[in-house]
Amino acid sequence: AGAEICVAATKSYIGQIAALYMLAAGKRESDVAAKKLAAVSSDMLPALSCDASARRIAGMCAQSRAVFFLGRGSDYYTAVEASLKLKEVSYIFSDAYPAGELKHGTLALADESTLAVFIICERTVAEKCVNALEQVLSRKGRAAVVTCFDDIASRLKSCAEVWLLPRSEPALTPLICAVALQKVAYFTATGLGIDPDKPRNLAKSVTVE
Predict the structure, then answer these.
(1) Portion of the chain with pLDDT greater than 70, in percent
(2) Which of 23, 58, 43, 29 has its CA nearest to residue 121?
């Protein structure tokens, strides 16, 4: 991956996912895993080049008093990364929650001034995430959706801002999704006139104890 020069540590996060994927594959499957990683890099290109979708969601973030990222399963871990990047470079309050725990606190914060970003890239829990999104909308909250499923995107495009990402195998989808949401954080910061390369009050752990 090379040296990380971004204070918000974007590349190193992606590198960690790739490294964990290779470790999980083990020595016997390492060649296959390496080929899959090489292939998924081309699937990441639409997320890197689709400025329109990233800018629309970033615009919604910039107009919000708080942004909540929600997902189930591995999507929740991507939500944590997305929340961290947004608060680091845009200074907008954000947090990540498991979508299944929506009614245990997060839903009380949903209103016209907040944004809920749902990550829906796990098929087995997709419908439950859609239900959680409907709960937010019924409380007059605003919502955006990042998904790799065509049917989910079609169903939700009339009630939420939807970004349809390329599909990959489940273990590699977080790579694509994380890149997309890192780009949302970038455009949110630049849209607010903030330099994302120089976030205030932050320093790297490699330079400070």
Answers:
(1) 97
(2) 43
